[in-house]
Write a structure and sequence with these properties.
Elements lengths: L5 E10 L4 E3 H5 L6 H8 L3 E3 L9 H15 L8 E5 L10 H9 L5 E5 L5 H14 L6 E8 L9 H4 L4 E11 L4 E9 L7 E2 L11 H5 L6 E2 L1 H22 L9 E4 L4 H10 L11 H4 L6 H9 L8 E8 L3 E8 L3
Helix pairs in contact: 3-4, 8-9
Length: about 325
């Protein structure tokens, strides 16, 4: 009798642009202060991808190349590449296809997943299913966003929050019981009114009027989103632990979506984790949307040990949210 196949993360990588946008830079653009931003969000600076014609594939390509080098594989060995993003290079083709072409992954198929800040968790769950099916051996899962492309830098409610970045993981089959253990994902489209980009889709295609009305930028009602996010991320994380008969004492790390330090603290408190078990890099990168969780794994990789129980948790626009339990494989 063959052992059950699980999907294990066997390598992680990340990429952030060199250019920084600090709170002090924003003080010169909008009516805000460094102290106000830090006290309410925890953010000190964020990275911005500059240069004409540069989309998220510019960040994903070096991240995936780094992934292949670390694991010692050729891009030709990749079976599938999935990108979680709300800022694809273009509406079509999928950014995943563009990346496969740029890295020479000629044997891979790929597609994009749009779930806002929960994009990496949604994508990870899809990639896990492909590995568990037994048909695929190497699946690359990416979370990447160039939020600076859809942020109105005259809107102080959103421009202080977001940054650009990309993170990636490689999924491979495992028969030791390591890897992705469980995942709970949710969505509620009624949240669309609170966090969305109104124009640019088929309902409101680009026109001179939509551009003039600044409808191609992120629109957010901060207070409403904050309340939903605190409850959503905290509750789903607690539900995931309960479903797997675990407590905070059994968890080595919480990897929360980096949207707001207060939301992160609320989630950690809900599942009984001290701050030293919580990955936080929001101060350096801001909210990179789908990239926040893999960027944390990339930065903390050397501190992770084989067998560690890790909880990944996210909440995103529209609304989407979820939590995933991972048993670290290396």
């Amino acid at each position: 009798m063959s052992k059950k196949i699980t999907a294990a993360i066997t390598a992680v990588s990340g990429y952030v642009p060199e250019d920084k946008l600090t709170n002090f830079d924003l003080e010169k653009i909008v009516d805000t202060t460094d102290e106000w931003i830090r006290s309410r969000t925890g953010i000190e600076e964020r990275r911005i991808l500059k240069g004409e014609g540069k989309g998220i594939s510019e960040m994903i390509v070096p991240a995936v190349k780094q992934l292949c080098e670390k694991r010692g594989i050729d891009p030709m060995e990749i079976d599938c590449l999935i990108v979680g993003t709300v800022t694809p290079d273009m509406v079509f083709p999928a950014t995943a296809n563009i990346v496969c072409d740029k890295i020479g992954a000629r044997n891979a198929w790929g597609f994009d997943v749009s779930a806002a800040c929960s994009g990496f968790l949604y994508t990870l769950t899809v990639g896990t299913s492909l590995i568990e099916s037994g048909r695929y051996k190497k699946v690359v899962v990416v979370g990447a966003d160039k939020m600076s492309a859809i942020i109105d830098y005259s809107d102080r409610t959103t421009c202080i929050i977001f940054g650009d970045g990309a993170g990636a993981v490689l999924l491979e089959p495992n028969e030791e019981g390591l890897g992705i253990q469980d995942s709970l994902l949710r969505s509620d489209g009624s949240g669309c009114q609170y966090l969305r980009m109104k124009a640019g889709g088929s309902a409101y295609p680009a026109t001179a009027e939509t551009v003039a009305n600044r409808e191609h930028y992120v629109y957010q009602e901060g207070q409403a989103v904050f309340k939903f996010a605190v409850k959503g991320m905290a509750d789903i994380s607690a539900e995931l632990l309960e479903r797997n008969n675990l407590t905070g004492d059994d968890i080595s790390w919480l990897v929360p979506h980096q949207a707001n330090l207060r939301i992160i603290d609320a989630t950690a408190n809900r599942i009984g984790l001290p701050k030293e078990k919580v990955m936080i890099n929001i101060q350096k990168y801001g909210n990179t949307t789908a990239a926040t969780i893999p960027l944390c794994l990339w930065e903390w990789e050397k501190q992770l040990k084989k067998g560690d129980n890790i909880v990944l948790a996210a909440f995103g626009g529209g609304f989407t949210w979820g939590a995933t339990l991972v048993k670290w494989a290396y």
